[in-house]
Amino acid sequence: MLSLVVEPSAPFVPEGGRTQLTITREGNLDLPVSVKYRTIDGTAKASERDYTPIITETVYFRPGEREISFYVFVLDDFMPETDETFFVELYDPTPEGKGKSTKALMKIFSFTLGLREIRPFPPLHIKMRGAG
Predict the structure, then answer these.
(1) What is the mean pLDDT of the chain?
(2) pLDDT digit string (tens) for 80-111?
(3) Which one of 10, 13, 93, 111 is least enclosed by Cβ atoms within 10 Å?
(4) How far is CA 8 from CA 21, 54, 63, 87, 126, in A?
(5) Do the domain assignments include residue 6?
(6) Buried b / exposed e across 4-43, counting CB within 10 Å, b at 16+?
(7) Mean pLDDT of 55-77
(8) CA pair distance 77, 97, nearest whole angstrom
(9) Which residues lie across from 41 on neighbouring strands?
(10) Which of 95, 93, 86 is closest to 128 using CA atoms?
């Protein structure tokens, strides 16, 4: 089984930063499993250099493998603006999950007037029901 659960539910990512997302596999670990992931624009636009897009990537779990991590990068465009959002989507898990998908909301915390805030951003655990 893969399921998509993000903790916290709407994580903030600092401009110019990155966040680690971990896809966690649960259930029977005896078989190989794969799942695709990508980013989708919200109010944040990859074409406006708000974040680095992930067009389509696939992760492959070998038998016995439980977690795979990847990073999402947010660009600092040095423009005063409000907080923006985009999505990370997991979709088409195999076996037995063709057509299933789920999304996690990501918020970009915008720094204005030259202010910078440094705070921890815990790793997110993404789980998706429907395969394995």
Answers:
(1) 76
(2) 777 888 988 888 888 766 777 878 888 887 76
(3) 10
(4) 12, 21, 29, 14, 11
(5) no
(6) bebeeeebbbbbebebebebbbeeeeeeebbbebbbebbe
(7) 88
(8) 38
(9) 86
(10) 93
Task: Report the C-alpha gap between 33 and 109 in whole angstroms.
Answer: 34
pTM above 0.90, yes or no: no
Q: Which two tokens stand for residue 68?
A: 């795979």
Evaluate whether residue 62 is within a structural domain. Answer: yes
Identify the domain containing residue 43 by its residue range: 12-126
Which amino acid is it at 97? G
SS3 content of the chain, % helix, strand, coil (to 5): 0, 45, 55
Which residue type, as a one-letter code, is found at position 128? M
Domain count, the chain: 1
**CATH number for position 81:** 2.60.40.2030
Q: Which residue has the tokens 């680095």?
A: 52
